[in-house]
Structure formats: structure tokens, C-alpha cells
Write a structure and sequence with these properties.
Length: 212
């Protein structure tokens, strides 16, 4: 089990049964008109040694992904994505697939993740001149057991996640590290205080000269 706690929807969960192996990278793109959560599953293959079982598991994944109904797509829909698209990057074994879900904004996405986890918390999104501020607070002690959570299919290593601005630059972060003007990644050193995890990001529009 891998424990990840960020606004990206990373909660305590188990990865896909342990039979299908994959490398996952995830980017959440923040744009003025909405948010796109992009998930790339690379080199998807079964680790089952018995040929029939391996073929069956990989065939099930291939058919589900071809129908846009594989676990990642289902998870994005459950979190309230307006649209979900699946693009094949490699149709031969080992498979690679990119799945993208579009959301209204990061606050709504974060609130959906908290609800799906069965936790108590809140998310805010505010605008102060040309600066946008996002924050989320989650009571980790109130979270439900990880079974049957949408985010189960979206969990991977912390290093596999990035928050990316399509315009502007990040100006402050709590629970994230700003690695360049437009990219922030989860801060592995961030911990909860009294069982409550707080995260925040702020970004400025292009040409913004406001003080933050």
C-alpha cells in the first residue's frame, strides 16, 4: 500500500490487484477555463506466469481501454469529469494509454476527491487581482477505508505527479515544491498537524506585477 495525500486525489489505496504492472505518470493542467487531469499508463503488462492467465488479464485491459471503460477512466468519471478521453499510445503488449478527464476547476475536483475518500474537509479557490489562490484542508482521521474509492485507480508514487500551469507562474506553495515557474510537485516532507492536512498553491497571471 502506498500512502499519498495531496489535492490531486492521492489517498491511501492499493494498486489494481497486483497482477497488472505499469508505470504511471500524471499531470494536472490548470488553465483559465478549467482543469485537465492527464494520466499516462506505460508498459501495462501482466506479471502472471501462467500464459492463459496473463493473456486473459491483458485482454481484459485492452478491451476495457478500447471502450474507454478501464479503471482510470472510470475513476475520472466518478470524480465528476465533464468528459473523459482515452488515447492509445501503444496497442501492442506492453500497452501504453493516455486518459484525460476535464473538470470545471481545481476546487471542484479537490472537493470531489475529499467526498470520495469519505473524509471531512473543504477546498477554496479565490482571485485577488491577477493572483489565484487555491487551498484544501482534509481531516485524515475521518477518511473511510480505501476500498472502492475512485482514486484507487489514480494512485502512484509521489514522483509521478505534477501540477502544471498552462498560463502564468506559481508564486507560493504549501505541500508542494515549485520546480519551475509553471510546474509544482508534491512535497514528500509535508505532514498533517493534529490529523489535518492543509495544502495550498498560488499563481499569477501572465504579466502580473502584484505583490503576494
Amino acid at each position: 500500500m502506498r500512502v499519498i495525500a495531496t489535492v490531486c486525489g492521492l489517498v491511501a489505496a492499493a494498486l489494481c490487484g497486483g497482477c497488472l504492472q505499469k508505470d504511471m505518470t500524471q499531470s494536472i493542467y490548470l488553465a483559465p477555463g478549467g482543469v485537465v487531469w492527464s494520466v499516462i499508463e506505460r508498459d501495462v503488462r501482466s506479471d502472471t506466469r501462467e500464459p492463459a492467465g496473463r493473456i486473459g488479464e491483458e485482454s481484459d485491459y485492452f478491451l476495457a481501454a478500447s471502450a474507454g471503460n478501464h479503471p482510470v477512466a472510470q475513476a475520472l468519471r466518478r470524480l465528476g469529469a465533464r468528459t473523459v478521453t482515452t488515447t492509445w499510445l501503444r496497442r501492442e503488449r506492453p500497452y501504453s494509454v493516455m486518459t484525460e478527464g476535464r473538470f470545471a476547476d481545481i476546487r471542484q475536483l479537490a472537493a470531489a476527491i475529499v467526498r470520495d475518500a469519505g473524509a471531512q474537509g473543504d477546498a477554496t479557490l479565490s482571485h485577488e487581482g491577477c493572483v489565484t489562490r487555491f487551498a484544501v484542508r482534509v481531516d485524515l482521521s475521518s477518511a473511510a477505508e480505501p476500498d472502492d474509492q475512485a482514486a484507487d485507480a489514480l494512485v502512484a508514487d509521489l514522483d509521478g505527479y505534477r501540477i502544471v500551469l498552462t498560463e502564468g507562474r506559481f508564486v507560493s506553495a504549501d505541500g508542494f515544491r515549485i520546480v519551475d515557474d509553471a510546474v509544482a510537485v508534491p512535497d514528500a516532507g509535508k505532514t498533517a498537524r493534529d490529523g489535518v492536512l492543509t495544502l495550498a498553491l498560488a499563481w499569477a497571471a501572465e504579466g502580473c506585477v502584484a505583490k503576494w
